Amino acid sequence: MGSDHSRVRPVLKPGDEYRGWALLLVIVRAPSGFVLVAHRWAFSFFPIVASDVGVTGRIPSASEQATGKEKFEHDAMMTGNTDPFDMSFHEGPWGTAVNPRGVPSHFDERILGCVCEPEATQIIYMTLKKGNPQQCDCGHWWKLVEAK
Hints:
Helix content is 10%, strand content 38%. It is mainly beta.
């Protein structure tokens, strides 16, 4: 006969600690929704600290459950920045060897897509590296600049 872990239901208040049996769940985000991959009971030797930070009793909003890059993007959109990762299409003057078009980047290189002509049906991609200006096959000159 297996042990009945359903009897172990501690009621924790914010700040309380719990050591004991806990149900561990592995949940994966799939295109069709969330899928429970595995679950098992395990004994927690380290304290589980209850918190009142989470949302209970309702489904959290996008801003409450977002983390990482998704949270950065959501926060930027809420402040009015519609392109937080600077990925929008930029049109402007032809870049020359003397006056190349600047491409902002937070890194030492960036992948750049050049639409060489207004009627072009393809995009020419190149890796733009920090340092000297680089020329596309069509003649446009580009230079990587530090992003603000």
